[in-house]
Amino acid sequence: MGFALLPVLVSVLTIQYSAAQSFKCSSSYPSTCHALVGYITVNNTNLGAIQSLFSVKNLRSLLGANNLPLNTKRSYAIPAQQVIKVPINCLCNNNTGTSSGAPIYTVQPGDGLYHIAAEVFSRLLLFQQIAAANNIRDVNLITIGDKLKIPLPCSCDEVDGQKVVHYAHMVKSGSSLGEIAQEFGTNEETLARINGIKADSDLKADQPIDVPLKACNSSISGDSFDFPLLAANGTYLFTANGCVKCMCDAANNWTKVYIFKPLTISGILALQSANFHIIYNYAVLVRLHCEPSQNKPSKWDTCPSMKCQGAEGLSIGNSTAAGCNRSTCSYAGFNNSTIMTTLVQDSSSCSRTASPPSNDVSRINSSWDCLFILVVLCFHLFQ
């Protein structure tokens, strides 16, 4: 049986990479979610190789995370130094988040733990973390053919009361918190707080930083097998054993609510708990759009019915409108034998056109729906 030796002194590496590359999870009990990591390709490669490296079950999951067309092949070429978003299952436990179950890496001739962490997985984690996850006592000695768990960093925490998709972004040399925040639609204060960073000087090049990506609001039931179903803006995913495709597209599926009075703290919390993003004098809600995928299901012979009860002819993704009243059949989750649906009523979609305020979110569209907030919500907003 062959052995792979760590090519450099562990003591030197421990000093150079002493900072732990882990993301915080505040949950005191185990919880799971979907997350993303930004893999920077070392050499020219293809989607199939990346899928295999990260043990991604379905190619379409990788395509959706990068908003690539569904007909993209595994042989699709990816040049060196390109960032590919890789979907992972995240497990939060003991205030730390790491990938659950995958990826699993098979040790190759000439491998060392440092090489695997720094070069194969592009510094997304430290070699010490691989050793700890696999109970390796002597990090200088690993066996060819060993199957190693790769504990990638992730989180399932809400951020400022909102559900988000956590993304492990690799910091580039010379980057600032402001630049990263602007690129991903967040703010410097949030990035600094969730990463325990006080200033730009605390950023370390070629190490991951936790970036919260805004997610579309959905109607997923709490007892659904895929709860909580979160998709970051500009991505799509498949669920319900592949029968349902869900897309998060802020350019098309969003609602704008004007705020005419100063919000109280309880009002802000009420909007945030409903996943509204508050921007100056209005709030924006981006909705998850789901529809039948036309795929062959992975665990069922055929996909179950996706029609909404009480709405003749409406199935998931379809809407009907009468005046200001709009009814949409929305995906609500699935269980062993059923795809759940819910009829979402929007009795306030009176559309008008105007020049939106000048900022990134409102530039998405030049028209919006004026949403009349329900009496119950108004009570929380302005009491």
UniProtKB/TrEMBL annotation:
The keyword Signal applies. It holds the Pfam family LysM. PROSITE patterns: LYSM. Residues 1-20 form the signal peptide. Keywords: Signal. Residues 103-150, 167-211 form the LysM domain. This is LysM domain-containing protein.
